[in-house]
Amino acid sequence: MSKTEYWVHDLDPFLFQFTENFGIRYYGLAYALGFLAGMWFLHLFCKHGKAVLTPEQQSFTITAMMIGVLLGGRLGYSLFYALEETLHRPWVIFQIWKGGMASHGGFIGVLVACWWVAKKLKLSFLQLGDLLCPLVPPGILLGRIANFINGELWGKVSNVSWAVIFPQSAMQGTPVELISARHPSQLYEAGLEGALLLIYSQWRLWKTDALNSPGRLTGEFLLIYAVVRVFGEQFREPDAPLIFDLSRGSFYSLFLLVGGLFLIWRSKRTA
Fold first, then answer.
1. How far is CA 114 from CA 56, 121, 124, 268, in A?
2. Predicted confidence band at 95 (pLDDT cuts at 50, 70, 90)?
3. CB within 8 A of 266, min separation 6: which ones?
4. Which residues pair with 25 in a beta bridge?
5. Alpha carbon of 157 to those of 36, 42, 117, 235: distances in Å?
6. What is the pLDDT of residues 147-198, one digit of tens each?
7. Cα angle vertex 157, ends 154, 163, to 5°?
8. 3-state secondary structure at position 236
9. For residue 2, pLDDT beyond 90
10. Which residue blocks in the chain are alpha helix, DSSP H?
11. Domain that holds residue 76
């Protein structure tokens, strides 16, 4: 296909725009809807006996998860992807309007929040983790779609028929006919990290006895996320220097892989 036959990304990152840099962005809306979906799922789990949490405890849990995701995601981006800039200008951590969130940092934030909630509510840390894992995929799914709408985190150059020309992938002012089409890797990740994990985790929670083996569902979640993330990274253009010839996303996912395998092994030993 000639470059003129590929779709040129021209989506507006704002749902409503009030000034040049202020408005309701799809990225922020994705986070809001993701948290609302998490609240709804947690309420549903409790309503049908999958968990015993009062409405107040449910609100406390979701609030803690929100704080964990936002702080962890922002700090993770600053430390994992923009460490040099953060060390020289630490105040950029607070410039959230410029974007920059890291999913692996979000995982760490959720882990800390889960530990805090379990301690405050006197719950099993692993059992709470199993309950919360199925709440995460809707946010990932919506976040990746928002990445696509923003025209960021694009894929590698490709000539597949569904490739997309992302103007932001080239220097400003570059004629469209000179810009290479790329994989819409954000949508691949939305399907793999979001939709696939949503279906799997919900099936495991509702249709199997996974909750009877504390840590098992969390381990499976981490394992599958790590595998599909590494797979998806093969189509994504690295947005930071490689580590041992691996993209940052692949490298950090190895830790999730090890953690997931450990939790699965542990759950089998204690079953």
1. 16, 10, 10, 22
2. confident
3. 215, 219
4. 14
5. 36, 40, 44, 9
6. 999 999 999 999 999 999 999 999 999 999 999 999 999 999 999 999 999 9
7. 75
8. strand
9. no
10. 26-47, 55-80, 83-88, 103-121, 125-132, 137-150, 185-189, 197-207, 216-233, 248-269
11. 3-269
**Residue type at position 32:** A
**Average pLDDT score over residue span 16-26:** 89
Asked if residue 193 lies in contact with residue 229, where contact means CB atoms within 8 angstroms, the answer is yes
Task: State both tokens at 88.
Answer: 């020289």
How do beta strands 164-165 and 14-17 pair? unpaired
- State the Cα angle at 33 between 29 and 34, rounded to 5°: 115
CA distance 76 to 82: 9
DSSP 170-229: S-TT--GGGSPPB--HHHHHIIIIIIIHHHHHHHHHHHS-GGGSTTHHHHHHHHHHHHHH
Alpha-carbon distances of 11 from 137, 163, 236, 253, rounded to whole Å: 24, 15, 20, 30
The residue written with tokens 């549903």 in the block is 44
Task: Name the DSSP letter for residue 161.
Answer: T
Alpha-carbon separation of residue 262 from 89, 172, 201, 215, 265 (angstroms): 38, 47, 18, 9, 5
The total number of structural domains in the chain stands at 1
Task: Kindly report whether the global pTM for this prediction surpasses the value 0.90.
Answer: yes
Task: Tell me how far apart the alpha carbons of residues 34 and 144 are, in angstroms, rounded to a whole number.
Answer: 11
Per-residue buried b or exposed e for 150-166, using 16+ beta carbons within 10 Å of the residue's own CB: bbbbbbeebeeeebbbb
